[in-house]
Amino acid sequence: MSEQSTEALFGPDPDMSDQAVLNHFAFVERHQGKLEAEHSGKMALMRDGAVVEIVEDMDVAYELGLRRFGSGNFSLERIGASPHRLGVLEYAFA
Questions:
Q1: pLDDT band with cut points at 50, 70 and 90 for residue 85
Q2: What is the DSSP string of 6-68?
Q3: Which residues are bridge partners to 75 per DSSP?
């Protein structure tokens, strides 16, 4: 598959780390506690540090995020999941 056809199928290779890191820390610091009581096991669709929508299914949440914001412009957080380790990024934002 040529580079051009890959970009046509999937869009340009976005720098997803900024949106994902921003959303992850916002989720942990501001949203996680209150959402776990009512929405455990569901997905939080996030953009710019805000929870945009709570969705039952990860695939549905991903498709919704793509339609509304485009690739690399949102992230998903599983509510009630054990935390992911971000390695050195955890210290950069501490």
A1: low
A2: HHHHH-S---THHHHHHHHHHIIIIIHHHHHHHHTTSEEEEETTEEEEEES-HHHHHHHHHHH
A3: 46
C-alpha distances out from residue 94 to 21, 76, 78, 87, 88, Å: 12, 21, 22, 12, 10
**How crowded is residue 90: how many other Cβ atoms within 10 Å of its Cβ?**
14
pLDDT band at 58 (very low <50, low <70, confident <90, very high): very high
Name the CA dihedral angle for 68, 69, 75, 76, rounded to a multiple of 10 degrees.
0
User: What residue has token string 């210290």?
Assistant: 91
- Per-residue pLDDT for 4 more than 90? no
Its pTM surpasses 0.85: no
**Bridge partners of 50?**
47
Cβ–Cβ under 8 Å, residues 54 and 43: yes
